[in-house]
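Onboarding guide, step 5: your first structure request.
Type a short instruction followed by the sequence, for example:

Predict the 3D structure of this protein.
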Amino acid sequence: MHASSTNASRTPSCPRPDGPYDALVVGGGVIGLVTAWRAAQRGLRTAVADPAPGGGAAQVAAGMLAAVTELHYGEQTLLALNLASARRYPDFVAELEEAGGQDVGYRACGTLAVAFDPDDRAQLRELHDFQRRLGLESQWLTGRECRRLEPMLAPGVRGGLRVDGDHQVDPRRLAAALLTACARAGVVFHRARAERLTLTADRATGVELADGTRLAAERTVLAAGSFSGRLADVPEDALPPVRPVKGQVLRLRVPPAYAPFLSRTVRAQVRGGHVYLVPRENGELVVGATSEELGWDTTVTAGGVYELLRDAHELVPGITELPLVETRAGLRPGSPDNAPLLGPSALPGLLVATGHYRNGVLLTPVTGDIMAEVLTDGELPDEARPFSPRRFPAARTDLPPTRADFPPARPGIPVPQEHPA
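The system replies with C-alpha cells like these:
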C-alpha cells in the first residue's frame, strides 16, 4: 500500500545525539530533499531545515522533463547536464517509488511543440535545425500531422516538432515520495526557518533556526531555491547570485466525457509568447507559465490568468469548457546564466545546490548524485564542473536583482514558493 502524503509528513524532528551532522541541507524542496536522500544513502548523518518540507516548487511546477524542447541558444553546456539527468529518470523513478512507496506520476508520453503564425513557424524551424546540429532527436511535422496526433489542436497550427524523448513527472508526487524516502533513510527534519549561518574560524559550521536552535554540521548545503541568497551572515563572496522569477500557473480538470483531451505535453509559441499544456493521467491539465521579474511577489493576477487562458484557447479551443480548479504563482530561482550552482562555495564547509531556474524538476536526479559525491568525496564530478558556484565573481553589481534589491523583512529563509517548470 502506498504511503499517503499525510503519513509522509510525520518525519523525525529531533536532533541527533551524536554530535554535528555530516550534512545539513537548508531547504526542503525537491532539490534539497534529493540531496538529503542521496547523502543519507551514502551513510552520512543528514538533516533538513525547512518549515514545510515537500512544499515550495513542487506545489507549483508543471513537471516537464523537456531537455530537447526547452533548449535555448547558448545553453549547450546546460543541455549536456539536462540530457544526463533525463537519461537517469527511469531508473531514478523506479528506485524512488520503491523507497518512497508511492507513484510519482512519471509518463514517457513525449512532447509536441507547435507554431501558429509564419514568424513562430520560422523560429521553430530554426530551433529544429539547431537541435539536429547538436544530434538531438526531433521530428518536423506539418500542421495536419500535428492535428492527427492531437485532434484538439486548433486548425491554425502551421507546423510542429515531435520530441518523443521529452517526458513528464508530477512534482507534487515526486516531493511526497522524496519526503518519505528521506524519512526511511534516517534524515532528520527540523521544521523551522534557517535564520543565519554560523561560522567558526572562517568556516561554515551550521545554522541558527528561527526558534533559536543551533544545528552544527560538518557541511551545510544551501538548497532553498531563490531564497538561497537570503540566509544571514553568509559572506558576500559565498552568497549565491540567485533571483526570483515569478511564474503563474493554472490547473484545470478534464471530465471523463472529454477524455482523452491531450495525449502528451503540448507547447506553443503564440504571438511570440510561450504556453504549455501538461495532461496528467488523473485528469488534471496544467497550463503555464508566465515569466515576470517582480521580486518576491507571488500574487496571482487577473492579467496573468487571462494571458494564459487566451493563449491556451488559441492553441486548444476546447480548453474553455474545462473547469478551472487552481491558480498558483511561484518563484523560479534564476541565475546570471540560467544554469544551476552546484558544489562548494568560496566558504569552506558551505555548499550550494540552487539556481536551477526552469529545470529544477528535470535536474533532480543528477543534482542528487552530484551533491552526494561532493559531500562524500569533496570533489565535483566532471559533469558538474561547469556549474561550480565559483564561476561567478564576488562583485555582482552588474547582475540581475538579488538580495540587495529585495531586502527581506527579517533575515532568514522564508517558506519558498518556487519555480514553475
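Each response can be followed by summary notes, for example: Confidence is low (pLDDT under 50) at residues 1-17, 395-421.
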